Amino acid sequence: MLGLAPKPQTKTPPPAKRWRNYYRVYHVLTLYRVGTVFPGIHAGPDAFPSQELAEQHASNFLAAFNPPGRYIMDFVGAFPEGDAAN
Questions:
Q1: Its domain of life (predicted)?
Q2: Which of 3, 24, 47, 54 is the most buried (most CB within 10 A)?
């Protein structure tokens, strides 16, 4: 008949992932925004729009948090929300 082809279906891109930092804690700490944190791997309280921003924030935070020559907390990595570090 007319030879009309159906419209191609447009695919919507997946939602943007938010990135969360994970830290390894070596001592029992009481942090203002998080409360009491025990040794182990824990997620940070903030989510970031990109992995680069998350890693930069973790670098700045640990430089200010850890005293010179000691490690109270260490950076494990930045992972998309929903993925676990452990």
A1: Bacteria
A2: 54
Residue 14 lies in a domain: no
Specify the number of domains making up the chain: 1
Residue 25 belongs to domain spanning:
19-80
Q: Is residue 12 part of a domain?
A: no
The more confidently predicted of residues 59 and 69 is 59
Q: Which residue pairs from 22-28 have beta carbons closer than 8 angstroms and sit at least 24 positions apart in sequence?
A: 22/75, 22/76, 22/77, 22/78, 22/79, 22/85, 22/86, 23/58, 23/62, 23/73, 23/74, 23/75, 23/76, 24/73, 24/74, 24/75, 24/76, 25/72, 25/73, 26/71, 26/72, 26/73, 26/74, 27/72
